[in-house]
Write a structure and sequence with these properties.
Rossmann fold; 5-stranded parallel sheet
């Protein structure tokens, strides 16, 4: 696998950063040349043969800046191998796996612009101190109080690495 892969992401509270880094590390360990960069730092895709893009979820949707990035690069993304992932707390809920198909629908706007060769759906984490707005902090505190979520890191590193390993042949040129 000699191609160059970009793993790019956007995140509000940082959980998606770690997921992107783990995906990049797994791909690099397989021999790929990989850059892991925030979407805001990626203006040109010409150096890459494949793109893996991910976003944290806010309000059952990819972050607005991630959707803007996809729209801005849509033409070029359609010419490259493209995979998408999301990171959300819904999958960290008790029995969160039962919502997996619903969570997958949150990628519909991405699919409408560019068809991914693969999609990763991962639980994130919750540190209420990192939530930027008072309203959202209050909502999360109430959700924790009522047992909807638990604070902490709920990322499944084995599932993340497994998905990245499965990406290898799909992203090869």
């Amino acid at each position: 696998m000699n191609n160059k892969i970009l793993v790019t992401y956007t995140s509000r509270t940082g959980w998606t950063v770690g997921v992107a880094e783990a995906i990049g590390k797994t791909l690099a360990e397989s021999g790929a040349r990989v850059d892991v960069l925030p979407m805001r730092d990626v203006k040109d895709l010409s150096a890459y043969d494949a793109i893996v893009a991910g976003s944290g979820i806010n309000g059952a949707a990819w972050r607005p800046e991630a959707m803007h990035w996809i729209r801005d690069h849509q033409t070029e993304l359609k010419r490259k191998r493209f995979a998408a992932f999301l990171v959300c707390m819904t999958l960290a809920m008790k029995n969160g796996e039962q919502y997996r198909s619903h969570v997958a629908s949150w990628l519909d706007p991405v699919r409408a612009l560019v068809r991914p060769v693969s999609e990763g759906l991962f639980a994130g984490g919750l540190d209420i101190r990192k939530v930027p707005t008072f309203k959202d902090r209050l909502g999360f505190r109430l959700s924790v109080l009522f047992g909807v979520w638990k604070e902490g890191d709920h990322r499944d590193w084995n599932a993340i690495r497994k998905w990245a390993m499965e990406l290898k042949p799909l992203l090869s040129v």
